[in-house]
Amino acid sequence: MDVDSTLIDEEVIDMLGQAAGSGECIAQITRRAMLGELDFKAALAERVGLLEGMPASVLDEVYAKIHFTKGALAMIDTAHSRGWKVGVVSGGFSELVNRLVAEAHIDHSLANGLEILDGTLTGKTVGTVVTKSTKLESLHQWAEEDGVAMSRTVAIGDGANDIPMIEAAGIGIAFCAKPAVQQAAHYAITQRDLMQVISIIDEHDRLFDRAGV
Q: Is-catalytic flag, 9?
């Protein structure tokens, strides 16, 4: 699943932007990127560039304000109780995502890295930028690693970058998503409660069992 506005209620880049005094500018870029109106790499570079000079301690301040989406931890616990694996792939930042992964006991994760020099954000990322293609590749890679057929995978997200993995998954779920994402998904959740994912999977399986698939 996606992280920002899916696993958690917030958009971390927007929170960092607020701390940097560029909140509205960054939020506007985020909205356009989520709608698929902007190239994600370019939009990310522009937003991260506005964070140049911020102390790295701002990451701790932002993390303290992050909230797991309602039902997120219960959904993950339910998945684990059934022997399933859970992964997150994010266009956000590993400095925060890794903490969420540890707190929620998530099995797989991938996110962007922020360049930090002498305790200060440089306004650049490090490593390969997570794009819609990366998200799709991660779904395939983790399914293969865990021995799970693609028809038995589930992908959840809310933005344009999530569409390829949602379309490729056995069950693609748009979570409080943009219109284009809802059109691409097999299912749509419109209330911020991730436990509805479990209900969708169970109903999907019942339908296919009755159909003999």
A: no
